[in-house]
Amino acid sequence: MIYDPVRPADPKVLANDDAGDLDIADYLRAAEADLHEETALPEAQRQSFAALLIGAVGVVYGDIGTSPIYAFREALRATSSDGSAAVGRPEVLGVLSLLIWTLILIVTVKYVFVLLRADNRGEGGILALYTLVRLAARRRSVPVLILAMAGAALFAGDAAITPAISVLSAVEGMELILPSLNPWILPVTLAVLVGLFVAQRRGTASVAGLFGPVTVVWFLALAGLGLWHMAANPGVLAAFNPVWGVQFLANHLGVSMVVLGAVFLAVTGGEALYADLGHFGRKPIMAAWFVLVFPALVLNYLGQGALVLSNPSAAENPFFSMTPEWGLPVLVILATAATVIASQAVISGAFSMARAAIQLGFLPRLTIRHTAEGQSGQIYIGAVNWLLLGGVIWLVVSFGSSGALASAYGIAVSGTMVLTTVLGFLYILRSGVIAPWLAVVFIAPIAAIETGFLAANLTKLHDGGYVPVIVAVVLGALMWAWWRGTQKAQARARKLAIDTRSFVRSMRSSSVLAIPGTAFFLTSDPDIVPSALLHNIKHNRVLHEQTVLLTVETLRVPFASAEERAQIERLGGPFVRLSLRFGFMETPNVSKAISSARRAGLKFDVMASTFFLGRKRTVLRGKVGPSRGMDVLYAVTARFAADPTDFYHLPRDRVVELGERVAM
Fold first, then answer.
1. What three-state secondary structure class fits 120?
2. How many beta carbons lie within 10 A of that of residue 327, not counting itself?
3. What is the distance between the alpha carbons of residues 229 and 304, in angstroms, rounded to a whole number?
4. What is the reported pTM?
5. Which helix or strand (DSSP H or E) is residue 88 part of?
6. CA dist., res. 305 & res. 317, Å (int)
7. Which CATH number fits domain 41-464: 1.10.10.10, 1.20.1740.10, 1.10.8.60, 3.40.50.2300?
8. CA atoms within 13 A on the CB side of 13
């Protein structure tokens, strides 16, 4: 179940999808194993600072590091209605000023200085921020819940568009090397993307060590190219004056919103700073930004501006025009590698977001595999992977160029950033860390800027911006239907349920036959008797000498501590209540966690134990009404949920499933 306040009706937990193939010996070893994951220090504390710094460059900044390929180009194109008019010094310096100050205000101030300090036991991201707001408020708030769901849904749109636009923009550099290669741009892009998604099942641990060094080389190349062209036209440094940006917007009111939408492409990937907080820690992420990433990005944008001022024809593709002809193949290869790394970071983020959403009760169970020993964050979710691949292929084929895809990119990212700002403001208010008036003074300017960017991106709705909106609406409806359905099913089950303590008292005088062994009955609600237990007594007329009511709880924190993992309560007679707790960023593994129950005092013989699961099937009944569509969506989604038996990490020959129909 989900620990206060959300309690999905189904108690099924997540584990490795290979779990069902365990034999008894494997289970016994797992049950007796020492829980290294519980007692070990967080990964960010065990690695050296240098390793974390390089890793952060590769994973955290992979996405934002590819923005120079297309952000400045699209902003210049947006200065005229058809993108063909030449641009002058005011336009170049105005766009550069907007780019630089967007990086300063959105990324540096909001994310690096503020949000990186709002961690939930070291974890970040919009769902972690939601749990902080929930814990600070000490009560459930449906509007806040909807904000979190909307943010997660918009992230899904971003996860589909990022690989498409990043890889496509890099491969388009082939045309500059040899114009006759133009027909091969789409096939090569699709081949790279398909290979990337197919490789996900094997995990990224074997190649992750290359991400950091390759991305470091990429940022050094960005900085070097920028310095080279700045030397020829150092006047571009005037772009640090924000007046240029303000004057540009004032003098180009007709296209200002379109230009802002393009400028926002420079900070796509900024959300990763917060989302990957738990993987690397605050200090390495901050150090990487100030020491390498921010200087490299600014230098490259300034270098592109200097090039366009010297050669206005370079505005067509300023990034690839920065390198001499002999270095273009190297830059295209390096850019392609960087975009693949950026795409990998987004895909991994989608897996982590999906797991957190499942644990928080926003999505049904999905098959989750761990792809690396000792690294809980290295996971693979097949359903998410193939859905993303299908979406990415459709985007590449439908839009055909990175310029066309740019119109679809900003809405998802800007929407997510606005929602993160709102949740951050609510957390500051409810936690009382600073005075409310001071929070308003601090947050209002950032919220105004991000709202402006969102409004600017919404102007591109008909040009492709509808894509992330449709994705977000569909996924948001799915999450709401699932959460609403689980709450409704739980409420209905409680009306028909038998109180646990009264049941225990009534069984003292029962004539039911007691048999040796231990039976574990999984239940989502520890206060009511599991339906599987009632069915077992009704049909088999037996009761095990030790009957354990097992509840799997998902805490509102990323990781459960060793002390929180297991709690035992003796109810009287053969009945014991066992609660196993996991954080919302963990994949619960009952077999390993059961050793915590042993240490807490639960005695049982693994070879004489049986696990009883209740398999529920939703049946729709009643009158047709406005909410009927949500009920239908919940019932359909429930049938696609992964097999619960596999997710317990238990040997199949020791699991008994008892079916039950639930009317809604």
1. strand
2. 13
3. 7
4. 0.74
5. none
6. 12
7. 1.20.1740.10
8. 32
Inter-CA distances, 299 with 56, 264, 266, 328, 638, Å: 20, 18, 13, 19, 51
The Cα–Cα gap between 645 and 655 comes to 7
Q: Which two tokens stand for residue 291?
A: 């020491």
The total number of residues written for the chain in this structure: 664
CA–CA gap between residue 503 and residue 547 (Å, rounded): 13
Inter-residue contact 293 to 104 (CB < 8 Å): no
- Statement: residue 430 has pLDDT above 60: yes
For residue 643, give the DSSP letter.
Answer: P
Out of 93-102, 231-240, 385-394, 526-535, pick the least confident: 526-535
Q: How far apart are CA 133 and CA 428, in angstroms?
A: 8
Beta bridge partners of residue 522, listed in sequence order: 550
Using CA atoms, how far apart are residues 305 and 73, in angstroms rounded to an integer?
10
- Give the pLDDT band (50/70/90) at residue 20: very low
Residue linked to tokens 């194993």: 33
CA angle 121, 3, 566 (to 5 degrees): 80
- The answer to whether 6 and 524 are in contact (CB under 8 A) is no
Element (DSSP H or E) covering residue 250: helix 242-251
Q: How far is CA 394 from CA 161, 383, 405, 624, in A?
A: 10, 17, 11, 36
Q: Where in the chain is the domain with CATH 1.20.1740.10?
A: 41-464
Tokens 């058809």 locate to 82
pLDDT per residue over 312-368, tens digit each?
888 888 999 999 888 889 998 898 888 888 888 788 878 888 888 887 888 888 877
User: Are 105 and 446 within 8 A, CB to CB?
Assistant: yes
Residue 458 CA to residue 468 CA, distance in Å, equals: 11
State pLDDT tens for residues 387-420. Answer: 999 989 998 998 888 877 877 777 888 888 899 9
Coil/strand/helix, residue 615 = strand
The CA-CA-CA angle for residues 386, 462, 188, to 5°, reads 40
